[in-house]
UniProtKB/TrEMBL annotation:
Renumbered residue ranges of the record's region Disordered: 253-279
PANTHER family (alphabetical): OSMOPROTECTANT IMPORT ATP-BINDING PROTEIN OSMV
Name recorded for this polypeptide: ABC-type quaternary amine transporter
InterPro entries in the record: AAA+_ATPase (IPR003593), ABC_transporter-like_ATP-bd (IPR003439), ABC_transporter-like_CS (IPR017871), P-loop_NTPase (IPR027417)
Homology family: Belongs to the ABC transporter superfamily.
Entry annotated with the keyword Ribosomal protein: no
UniProt xrefs under Pfam families: ABC_tran
């Protein structure tokens, strides 16, 4: 469990990134910070592994203040996956995945074996192990980034707009991959995006942020869609338009659900009455 308590952050140039922020992020669930550019998402994320220290307040992991932890040791135990993949260009794929393992004294042979195993985990061919990042597609690089984040088997994975730089089809594949990995490994994931659809797809807990990391709403995707807390949230989630502006249409073949653009999205099934049994 990660807890932000009365966090504030002012950068040395006087910019207020976070005014006052408190939230509990449950263990083994995915929490998504979503908001427009500059709302403070990355600042909050980086406080978890002390890439940024708050000017006020406390961040705790399992009840322990991260301020008391050595930043380098702390970071080794937390996977960090960022938009560009952040891969070292002159190091092979296997070497990139095993970076943390080399730092923690794992033998070369064991690190190589683990890197190959992780290529399987993220759905990449082991034959890619000896390539350099520039010899991979953007989507493959992102998968290597995910593998590297998983290398030390951390309990916590921080993901900062990890799929922002890839095309929509690859992005959809990578999102499904995260859902699959999460089903298998149950990490505590903190995911930053400005894409509300991505937030609703991946988040168990979604945190919609306004300027200065003010919380506009926090809840499950269903809670937010069913009951937006303000006009800001309704606008932000696009409640009035697109895929979320659903309505019913009666047709000669039954009632269907139609989206804001008039496209039929599915068929309406009446919930079965209590006690009704199906033959
Ligand atoms: N090192 C820094 N020095 C000064 N101001 C900073 C620094 N890093 C971020 N900021 C400012 O703090 C605010 C929050 O930035 P942050 O990067 O956390 O937002 P974000 O929501 O992640 O934005 P984006 O989606 O564009 O990445 C912004 O106004 C930003 O300009």
């Amino acid at each position: 469990m990660i807890e932000f308590r009365d966090i504030a952050k002012q950068y040395p140039d006087g910019t207020t990134a976070v005014e006052r922020f408190s939230l509990t992020l449950p263990a083994r669930k995915t929490t998504v910070f979503v908001g427009s550019s500059g709302s403070g998402k990355t600042t909050l994320l980086r406080m978890i592994n002390r890439m940024v220290d708050p000017t006020d307040g406390v961040v705790e992991i399992d009840g322990e203040d991260v301020q008391g932890r050595d930043p380098v040791a702390l970071r080794r135990g937390i996977g960090y996956i960022m938009q560009s993949g952040g891969l070292l260009p002159h190091v092979s794929v296997a070497g990139n995945i095993a970076t943390v393992l080399h730092l923690t004294g794992t033998s070369k042979k064991a690190a190589r074996a683990r890197a190959e195993e992780l290529l399987d985990v993220v759905g990449l061919d082991r034959a890619l192990a000896d390539r350099y990042p520039s010899q991979l597609s953007g989507g493959q690089q992102q998968r290597v980034g995910v593998a590297r984040g998983l290398a030390a088997d951390p309990n916590i994975l921080l993901m900062d707009e990890p799929f922002g730089a890839v095309d929509p089809i690859v992005r959809a594949e990578l999102q499904q991959e995260i859902i699959r990995l999460q089903r298998e490994f149950h990490k505590t994931i903190v995911f930053v995006t400005h894409d509300i659809d991505e937030a609703f797809l991946l988040g168990d807990q979604v945190v919609i942020l306004e300027k200065h990391a003010r919380v506009a709403q926090v809840g499950s995707p269903s809670e937010i869609i069913e009951n937006p807390a303000s006009d800001f949230v309704a606008r932000f989630i696009g409640a009035e338009r697109g895929r979320r502006a659903l309505h019913l249409k009666d047709t000669p073949h039954g009632t269907v659900v139609v989206d804001g653009q008039g496209r039929t999205q599915g068929r309406l099934h009446e919930p079965q009455e209590q006690g009704a049994s199906s033959a």
